[in-house]
Amino acid sequence: MNLAQHPLFVSLTPVFLLIALGYLAGRRGWIRDTAVKDLSNLVFLILIPALLFRTMASVHLEELDLRPVLAYFPVVLLVFFTVVAWRGFSRESVVVAMAGVFSNMVMIGITLAELAYGKPALVTMLTLVSVHAFILLSVGSVVLELVVAREARERGETTPPLWATLGSVIKGTVIHPIPLPILCGLLYAQTGWALPVVVDKPLQLLGSAFGPIALVLVGVSLARTPLAGHWRPALGVSLVKNLLLPLLVGLSAWGLGITGLPLTVMVVAAALPVGANVFLFAQRYDTAQALTTASMGLSTVLALFTLSVVMTAMAWLNPLAG
């Protein structure tokens, strides 16, 4: 089999070509800053909910394997809290720790999983996606609020109770364009009803548009990412995210007896570059914004090579996934 026909090449090439096209469009000014937010809203508020709902509307709970969640997130949280402890309890350390564990599962992972491993891979990927934002955004928000509260106490200011903050975080992460359509799709699937054609076809068309537009937007964002002055710390974050985390997740999954396609999807999900939600944290809490954007950009560029290495290794170590 020549290189052009190799499954890894066939699945990764479209992903990175679309990202490169978005990068070119961003650098040339074909997609202006004012349009990026509108395109992001199109992806997150219309296209991704359509894809998630339609995919999960055919998944029955008895067929859903929750072992990937049990293997993935304890490792992610262990790495997160280890980085926070190592760097010190501060806003910057929490945001940097989040960058080291928060994967770009939505804009890159979903499309890559389907291209590389087919629709069966989406069940495992979407199982992780369904709780990925909920768990990490909740934990990150609570820890950051604790940091902010400590800073306020040191200044002699009063702060709201932690339970109020926790309630607000949970509400915001459940009523969200990613977890909500997944939960709604799962609930609909339990009725045993098939989606009517007049509903299913528009959802299929919207879901098909998600992948290309999302990947082009990744490239546009990459074109606007400053790396100067932040190479060394960004490289450290990127290596933790792109290589260390998938290694630990793979060992955890193997320890729980997970094999075949679910194991490969979990490791690939962990090897994805830093997700955009981390920058929103940095922006909201006004800390490490330049380092966060540099880490996002560098980890995405490095993913051209690290994802190839991880996927090749998994094809060799876990041939059942093929």
From TrEMBL:
* Transmembrane intervals: 6-26, 38-57, 69-86, 93-113, 125-148, 169-189, 209-227, 239-257, 263-282, 294-317
Q: Which GO terms describe its biological process?
A: transmembrane transport
What is this entry's stated membrane topology?
Multi-pass membrane protein
Q: Which GO terms describe its cellular component?
A: membrane
What UniProt keywords are attached to this protein's entry? Cell membrane, Membrane, Transmembrane, Transmembrane helix, Transport
Main location as per UniProt: membrane
Query: Where does it reside?
Result: Membrane
Among PANTHER family, the record links this protein to:
AUXIN EFFLUX CARRIER FAMILY PROTEIN, TRANSPORTER AUXIN EFFLUX CARRIER EC FAMILY
The protein in question is named AEC family transporter
Species in which this protein is naturally found: Hydrogenophaga borbori
